[in-house]
Design brief:
Elements (H helix, E strand, L loop, with lengths): L1 H9 L2 H16 L17 H5 L1 H10 L2 H15 L5 H9 L6 H34 L3 H17 L1 H9 L10 H31 L5 H17 L20
């Protein structure tokens, strides 16, 4: 059986692509959606809506387990192809008999960090939806502005650079287990720092969120193909227009 799975270590791309496609199919078949309590956006009830009672009402329409289930489906659909290089690194740095153990520990750590990030991002989504109420686009563009600033920031570039980091992995004993799990945790943390805006924005929309998820996934893959750059601000326009000194 292990011989039959050996090609996975040599070229995991087809398997990760298949995993992503399964996630997309499962996600498209899911009916989970973040709805809005009817009172949200009503000025006379703004104090009620923005308090704990408003949040409780929002969670009544959107149970936490449903939000997390939708988040895990997003992870399954959007992130597998980002793991090609890290998994190859773990595979080739591990003894043959320990390879699957190392891969499992890496995925466990990576998934744990993204699950924790999902709790925080879902809480942010609920807060934004309760605050802006039925004005979905106002909330979306407010968060979009924040995300664009983050995308251009040196903090984002630092996180993206660290996504290419390949730490030392011990060959034996508890050190091997610690290093594989730690690599998954650190890779997940840097990936969250780099990609959280692209994961957050689709959740804020009820219509068009699937297309935005697909665009976000393609952009994340494109960024991973870029070489590490100097940590500084990268605005989408030139700092000094041509012809001006």
């Amino acid at each position: 059986m292990l011989r039959g799975l050996r090609p996975l270590g040599q070229n995991p791309r087809p398997w990760l692509l298949l995993t992503s496609l399964v996630g997309w199919g499962w996600l498209l078949g899911s009916t989970a959606m973040l709805s809005i309590p009817a009172f949200c956006g009503s000025l006379p009830l703004a104090g009620y809506a923005l308090g704990w009672q408003g949040i409780e009402q929002a969670l009544l329409f959107n149970p936490p387990q449903q939000l997390l289930q939708g988040w895990w489906l997003m992870l399954l659909a959007m992130l597998p192809l980002l793991l090609v290089q890290p998994l190859l690194y773990v595979w080739h740095r591990s003894l043959r008999r320990k390879r699957w153990q190392g891969v499992a520990l890496f995925v466990l750590g990576f998934g744990a960090i993204w699950s924790l990030a999902g709790v925080m991002l879902m809480a942010l989504v609920v807060a934004v939806r309760v605050w802006f109420g039925l004005s979905v686009w106002q909330g979306f563009f407010a968060v979009l502005l924040l995300c664009l600033v983050w995308q251009a920031s040196p903090f984002k570039q630092h996180c993206l650079n660290q996504c290419h980091r390949q730490p030392r992995i011990c060959a034996f004993g508890l050190g091997y287990l610690r290093d594989c799990l730690g690599f998954g945790l650190s890779a997940g943390g840097w990936c969250v720092g780099s990609c959280w805006p692209l994961m957050l924005l689709p959740v804020l929309l009820e219509q068009g969120h699937v297309a935005l998820m697909l665009l976000g996934m393609l952009w994340m893959l494109y960024e991973r193909l870029l070489r590490p750059r100097v940590v500084r601000w990268y605005w989408p326009w030139p700092r000094h227009p041509r012809g001006l000194s």
